[in-house]
Design a protein that fits this description.
This protein has an eight-stranded mixed β-sheet with strand order 1-2-3-16-8-18-5-4, covered by helices on one side. A three-stranded antiparallel β-sheet has the order 15-9-17. It has helices at residues 25-38, 50-58, 134-140, 143-149, 158-165, 174-179, 213-227; strands spanning 3-6, 12-15, 40-43, 72-73, 76-83, 86-87, 90-91, 114-121, 129-133, 153-156, 183-186, 188-190, 197-199, 205-208, 233-236, 243-247, 251-255, 266-272, 278-279. The protein is α+β, with helices and mostly antiparallel strands. The N and C termini lie far apart (39 Å).
Length: 280
């Protein structure tokens, strides 16, 4: 029997789903409704095949194929592989992915609506993922700050910060820079279905519209620190059989390190296409 239990400070835990995630219509509707209400859902004791994970996620909306494709699962390009696992001496996933608070695709013109990460192999210690409630972060801002931010956008730049967030990866090629031009997104973002307003700022933000460079950078740093208040953070300690579904429009997340010399971590992520962010 499906049981959905709210967590503190936010999110909900889902137990009783079949390991395959092949849910009947009523149970799936309950999951979709809970996701809209709680922003992140923690599934326990699941073990979907790649095809089953893809099928489950597709019921929530169209799927996004990650680029570049070298970290996508052979035969299942909808699965983005994260971690330090190897096969025949070859890396099969992106190492050190997700460090630093962000929402997936925030540096693209159309960011990803949601992501579903399933634990295939996890280290016995560390390697947690932190989730920030960005609706609560917006609500907790002082009104003068909210008034300052309403109607403003931030510039998100992969080109400016790739070397900062991915120092272990090769520099962007000229073609990759052309494929990921800077984008402007509203800092106060309205969710397209719930109408909730979230603070939309992350690690790729470099500038705030209408502000001098130094002033904008200082405000971005202050907003990022505000969003990472522990009172609004859910820390997820991964267990075998876990899956986490999160809404990128109203949350941020951050991977934390583990001893990759001793342990292997392999995660499979399906990603939902999104929409142009709405100005609140």
């Amino acid at each position: 029997m499906l049981a959905i239990t709210p967590m503190q400070p936010f999110g909900a835990e889902v137990r009783g789903a079949p390991a395959s995630l092949e849910l009947g219509d009523a149970d799936f509707a309950a999951v979709a409704q809970a996701w809209g209400r709680h922003s992140i859902l923690i599934f326990r004791d699941i073990a979907p095949t790649p095809a089953q994970q893809i099928a489950f996620t597709r019921r929530l909306g169209p799927l996004h194929i990650m680029q570049p494709p070298q970290y996508n699962l052979d035969g299942h390009p909808e699965i983005f592989v994260v971690g330090n696992a190897t096969e025949d001496g070859r890396p099969v996933g992106m190492r050190d992915a997700g460090m630093g608070f962000h929402s997936d695709g925030e540096d693209k013109a159309i960011p990803n609506a949601g992501s579903f990460l399933v634990a295939v192999q996890v280290p016995p210690e560390r390697g947690d993922t932190l989730f920030a409630d960005m609706v609560a972060a917006w609500d907790a801002l002082e009104e003068p700050t909210r008034a300052l931010l309403r109607g403003r956008r931030a510039r998100f730049s992969r080109a400016a910060l790739h070397h900062v967030h991915y120092p272990h990866l090769p520099p962007l090629t000229d073609q990759q820079r052309r494929d990921r031009p800077d984008v402007w997104h509203p800092i106060a973002r309205r969710h397209p279905t719930s109408g909730r307003v979230a603070l939309y700022i992350g690690r790729w933000a470099v500038e705030i519209e209408g502000m001098a460079e130094a002033e904008g950078e200082a405000l971005i740093a202050r907003l990022l620190a505000h969003a990472q208040d522990p009172a609004r953070i859910h820390r997820h300690a991964w267990r075998p059989g876990d899956g986490v579904l999160w809404d990128n429009r109203v949350t941020q997340h951050c991977a934390t390190p583990f001893d990759s010399a001793r342990y292997t971590r392999r995660m499979h992520r399906t990603t939902l296409e999104g929409e142009v962010p709405l100005l609140a």
